[in-house]
Every structure is written in structure tokens, then in C-alpha cells.
Amino acid sequence: MGILNVTPDSFSDGGQYASPDLALRHAQQMVAEGADMIDIGAESTRPGAQPIDSTSELRRLMPVLEALVPLGVPISIDTRRPEVMRAALAIGADCINDVQALQVEGALDAVRESNCAVCLMHMQGMPDTMQAAPQYRDVVTEVGQFLSDRVQAVQRLGLAANRLLVDPGIGFGKTLEQNLALIGRLSELAPEVPVLIGLSRKRMVGDLTGRPISERLPGSVGGALAAIARGAAVVRVHDVAATVDALMVWRAVMSGPTELRGNER
Ligand code: HH2
Which CATH class is domain 2-259? Predict the structure, then answer.
């Protein structure tokens, strides 16, 4: 999943793809590099981010979405607002990626009427304060329980399990140790549903490498591969080409030569 942030304030690429034209070109480039899906976000949820209203979110999102839909690329929308979900689904978005796991009133109804995919993410607190003092008794049990409860709740209300992804929400109200515990014990999180992991360029990578945001590519790629090795089905990344290359080599090495076609030997 390639990240397309159409925000002025995202933590690593804010302001870079503000015009629909630049956003469209970046999306096309990520698809050419091997992204299977593009996740468009029009509101930053980085630690400390201030919420915006749905009018501003729609003003940023819709021109880009309208330009991307005709390309036929699977599109996910990173939003927690039902009005934004409805507008995006009405013009052809394929997936809703919700950092609040469809808990905002009206969110579930907004997706129920479409047959889109849904990613349910765990967050402790809200972006403006979530990193102040994250607290858990047992982070893996609590996040796993939350995700299982949300999966059951949305299934009871009519969303089939095969439309769902879950995400422990790396960096969303979690310390480095808690992030590492969640990725390390990924198979214990809602085992019936595929898991998405997003750690690209995040503070977790900075804490482990001592690198600033602009130098976190190798660490992010290493983290994505490790998450896949632990069982992640989808990785949400800024740097598609590097991640796809690493994944191709890693997979080939893990599988051995019998998996290669003749001309690749
Ligand atoms: N992380 C971010 C945003 N949305 N969605 C899911 N499912 N999982 C994540 O880990 C996740 C997410 C934050 O990253 P980014 O979009 O690069 O930054 P910002 O929120 O500042 O736009």
C-alpha cells in the first residue's frame, strides 16, 4: 500500500503533493513501482496533529480522488469521518482505512451500504495527545482484544470478514517497546483477519536507528520485511520502489531457486 498524503502537515511528506497534479503523478509513480493500492490521506494523524473539519478534508481529497479513480488503481481513503467516507465511496474508492476503527457515529453506516474493504486500526487516545503517556497492562492482549471486538461488532452489523483488515496502529499511543511487542506477536492479533502494518519513516524507526525522518528509508524497509516475516499481509509505505525490491529479493532468498523462472536464474 503506497501512501499519498494530500496534507500540508503530514510528518514526513506534508505539502509535497498538495496539488491534484502532483498527487496524481506520485500515485502513478507508486503504481509503476509496484504498489497494489494507494492510500490517500487528507488529514494528518501524526502525534500532536490538530484535527481538521470535514469540509477542509473533502476540499483536499476530492480533486485528487476524482483524478485517480479513472486510472483503475485500487484506492483506499485514510479517514475517520463518515461524510468523507460517503463522498469517497460514491465516486469509486475501494477501501476505507479508519484509524478510529469505524467508531465515529455514522461511520459504520457509511461503509455498510457499499462493498468496500475496511481497515480497522487501534489507537489509544487521539493524535493531539496520544504519545504523552501510553499505558497498557499487556499491550498485545489489549490491542488484540480491541481488534477482535471491532471485527465482531462490524460483522454483527453486516460487514463480511473477507472485507476486513486489522492494524495495531504502530505509533498511535504506543512506546517503542509496545510497538515491538505488537509486531513480534502479530499472529496473536485478531487471527481470523489479515493484518496491515504501517511503520514507514515513523518515530519507531528513528528511535531504533537514531536517524531523522529524511534518513529512515533503510530502517523502514527492514521493518516492513520483518513485519511481513511476522505475518503482516499488507505494509503501508511511503517508499514503494525500495520496499518492493527488498521484498522481491527477500522472497526469492526465502523460497530458493526452484521458484525462479528459467531466465531469472
Ligand atoms: N499511519 C499513519 C496514517 N494512517 N493508517 C493505518 N491503517 N496504519 C498506520 O500505521 C497509519 C495510518 C501515519 O502516517 P502518515 O500518513 O505518513 O503521516 P500523517 O498522519 O502525518 O499524514
Answer: alpha beta
Name the catalytic one among 60, 81, 202, 216: 202
Q: Domain spans of the chain? A: 2-259
Residue 101 Rama label (left phi>0; alpha psi -120 to 50; beta): left
Q: Are 244 and 223 in contact (CB under 8 A)?
A: no
The closest alpha carbon to 182, from 137, 227, 233, 234, belongs to: 227
The reported pTM is: 0.95
- In angstroms, the CA 152 to CA 161 distance is 9
| Active-site residue, from 236, 251, 261, 265 | 236
**What are the tens digits of pLDDT across the range 62-96?**
999 999 999 898 999 999 999 999 999 999 999 99
Q: How far is the CA of 90 from the centre of ligand 1 (A)?
A: 23
- Count of residues for the chain? 265
**Which of 42, 38, 8 is closest to 25 using CA atoms?**
38
| CB distance 170 to ligand 1 below 6 Å | yes
Catalytic site residue 174? no
Q: pLDDT per residue over 154-186, tens digit each? A: 999 889 999 999 999 999 999 999 999 999 999
Beta carbons within 10 angstroms of residue 194's beta carbon: 16
Q: Are 6 and 64 in contact (CB under 8 A)?
A: yes
Q: Select from 64, 126, 125 the least CA-distant residue to 91.
A: 64
- Cβ distance 209 to 181 under 8 Å? no
Ligand 1 center–CA 45 separation, angstroms: 6
